[in-house]
Specification:
two-stranded antiparallel ribbon; 20% helix; 5 helices; alpha/beta; globular; TIM Barrel; 210 residues; 8-stranded parallel β-barrel
């Protein structure tokens, strides 16, 4: 049985673009607080968020203090840790009341046993494509590798997911799939999303039938 995953749109910054996106009712909107990213944001957008849409903050090896400052400033619901953060930091951040999502970058050499160190301290895991640097690559990894994962935590699936992937997503049936994370394949330019592309894709995913 296929259950449509939730939708996370990441790398948002422009207030008017965010306002248009919110009309599509994504489940999560992501903000990137990694200064080396072309989608880096440091100013709170002047946008009203309905409480049903969760705000996700993306961090790469940031200090606990920095993460907490952004959590409060932006009203973040989920803290997405995309670097070399420890299980201990995940545990500490969970005490703030926010949810914690640890990112793992996957290739053929990835050892899924690593996730076991984090499963007691995180609410979600996100699997992305392995690259030489931190941040998204816009490229997919082989989703069949996820058959090695023990499904201990719900998964956000990321890495080069594009407008034509709705049917491929429905084939991911043995994974504890919470949401898909989309970004660069839907952009007109960094941090500016093509709303019509998103609208069609979200509709395709949410209306996929058996």
């Amino acid at each position: 049985m296929f259950y449509p995953p939730e939708i996370k749109v990441c790398g948002m910054r422009d207030s008017s673009n965010i306002t248009e996106l919110l009309l599509l009712q994504p489940d999560y909107v992501g903000f990137i607080f990694y200064e080396k990213s072309p989608r880096y944001i440091d100013t709170l957008p002047d946008v009203y968020f309905d409480s049903s849409i969760k705000k996700v903050g993306v961090f790469v090896n940031a200090s606990e203090r920095t993460i907490n400052e952004k959590r409060i400033q932006f009203g973040l619901d989920i803290l997405q840790l995309h670097g070399d953060e420890t299980p201990e930091l995940c545990f500490t951040l969970k005490q703030t009341g926010a949810q914690v999502m640890k990112v793992f970058r996957v290739d053929e050499d990835f050892d899924f046993q690593l996730t076991r160190r984090y499963q007691d301290y995180c609410d979600y895991f996100l699997f992305d494509t392995q690259t030489k640097v931190f941040g998204g690559s816009g490229k997919k990894f082989d989703w069949r590798l996820l058959e090695q994962y023990n499904n201990a935590r719900p998964v956000f699936l990321s890495g080069g997911i594009g407008p034509d992937d709705a049917q491929e997503i429905r084939k991911v049936t043995n994974l504890n799939l919470k949401a898909i994370d989309i970004n660069s394949k839907f952009e007109k330019e960094p941090a500016v999303k093509d709303i019509e592309l998103l609208k069609q894709f979200i509709n395709d995913v949410r209306n996929t039938k058996e």
